[in-house]
Specification:
The protein is mainly β. About 5% of the residues lie in helices and about 65% in strands. An 8-stranded antiparallel barrel has the order 1-3-4-5-6-7-8-9. The longest helix is centred in the first third of the chain and has 7 residues, at about 10-15.
């Protein structure tokens, strides 16, 4: 007969490194541009801001010192602003979005990490513009997108990371357009 018992966590096992979740709070600024030819001549991307939370799965080490892969799940909310090209018409574009991505990091060293990610993005675009014959108009679009990213991360200390990232969003539904967005940011570990 086999008897199984659950062993409670003790101070001795805590010193060896219990399994726990790691959290980070990333925030970033970026510039963006439409990729589609139809929108590229009409809109200029000006800037964007994003903030959110990143969750690392169960690990034994608070700081990952080993070379190798480390997965995470990131949820970001963001805002982007764009303006119409002066040669076409006066327009202002406001975009809000929520991006949920699975990231896979490769730790080159304790300080240097590369990462790639894939996820789903929901966004809403609000375009205010001057129509030639109807005056001021507003159009609103909502849609989903496939988001891809890749980047580099530098550990400044045990709780603060600086990163540079290239992001791409390919629209799956709605009247929106694909975008490319390079960003820089900081991520703070809890």
């Amino acid at each position: 007969m086999i008897v199984m018992m659950a062993v409670p966590c003790t101070a001795a096992s805590a010193e060896k490194g219990d399994l726990h979740f790691d959290f980070r709070l990333p925030a970033s600024l970026g510039w963006w541009t439409p990729v589609n030819e139809d929108w590229h001549g009409i809109m200029s991307g000006v800037g964007g801001i994003r903030a959110g939370i990143e969750l690392f799965p169960l690990t034994q080490n608070k700081v990952s010192n080993e070379r190798g892969f480390r997965p995470s799940l990131r949820l970001l909310a963001g805002y982007r602003f764009g303006i119409g090209e002066p040669d076409t018409y006066s327009a202002r574009l406001h975009t809000v979005g929520i991006d949920c991505s699975f990231l896979l990091r490769y730790n080159f060293t304790r300080q240097h990490h590369g990462f790639m990610g894939v996820g789903a993005l929901w966004q809403m675009d609000i375009l205010d513009y001057n129509s030639k014959y109807r005056g001021r108009k507003r159009e609103t679009w909502r849609g989903t997108a496939l988001s891809l990213c890749m980047g580099y991360e530098l550990a400044l200390n045990d709780r603060l990371w600086a990163f540079a990232e290239l992001g791409f969003a390919h629209i799956v539904g709605g009247g929106l357009f694909d975008t490319f967005m390079p960003v820089i940011g900081l991520s703070w570990g809890l």
